[in-house]
Amino acid sequence: MLALAMMQTSLVTGGCASNPASIGVLPESYAERLSYTDRLASGFKVSGERRHVLQYYVSDTIHLVRSSSGGQSGVRDGRLVSSSSQAVREIVIDSGTPGVVLASGPRWMAVSFEPGSYLYFISDAPRSVWLGNEYDRERYYLYLPDWNGQGGTVKIGNTSYVAVDSSIRAHLMVDRESFSSLDAEQRRQPGRLLYPNAP
Q1: H or E stretch including 131?
Q2: Residue 31: which of 2, 11, 1, 55 has the closest Cα?
Q3: Which of 37, 122, 144, 188 is disulfide-compatible with 138, CB 3.0–4.6 A?
């Protein structure tokens, strides 16, 4: 049994010594979605017009509502008649929806999620009262200057909508992908004899 164990050990060590290994190049990539901030952009040398070449995403669902009502009253067929109507229009921009920057300036960006319309996003937005620990003043949040805890007004073109629900948390995000590679090689040196030709 002892002889067998010694033979196995010598085979293993002998195999390691005589077979140098080349591990080669091991590529690695890692992707993540991060909140867009000026500090993040500065680290990647993104400023001014270079903002326009990034793909943006909205962090939380934006829910916009617009309602209008009308009515009339009068006499018809000998009776008093009144009628009323109400129209409700909703726009939903789901969390993760991609958008592009159409225009930008210091601490603001106009982002379009469909052709012909855009929404403003600003940094340093006053949200701490509503978001508490979630609030990060460096993020670019949906512009809601009159948010009252229930809703706030935004404009798409010349039409006003009321942003409700999770719209207060909506901010811009971008993808970051990191690449790294490892070029590794393992080689064992055989050693040198002082007198290689000695008998």
Answers
A1: helix 128-131
A2: 55
A3: 37
CA distance 141 to 120: 8
Asked whether the beta carbons of 160 and 66 are under 8 A apart, the reply is yes
The CA distance from 112 to 138, in Å, is: 21
- Which pair of structure tokens corresponds to residue 90? 């909703």
Domain assignment present for residue 63? The answer is yes
Question: Of the candidates 77, 79, 86, 63, which has an alpha carbon nearest to the alpha carbon of residue 167?
Answer: 63
* CA angle, residues 187, 191, 195, in degrees to nearest 5: 155
- Give the tens place of pLDDT for each residue, 122-178: 998 888 888 888 889 899 999 999 999 899 999 988 899 999 999 999 999 999 886
The conformational region for residue 78 under phi > 0 = left, psi -120 to 50 = alpha, else beta, is left
Contact by Cβ (8 Å): 172, 122: no
Could you identify the residue written with the tokens 């009159």? 146
Task: Find out whether 65 and 162 touch, Cβ atoms under 8 Å.
Answer: yes
Q: What is the extent of the structural domain holding 58?
A: 29-68+85-180
On average, the pLDDT of the chain sits at 80
Q: Is residue 190 part of a domain?
A: no
18 is a domain residue: no
State how many domains the chain has: 1
In a domain, 9, yes or no: no
| Amino acid residing at 87 | A
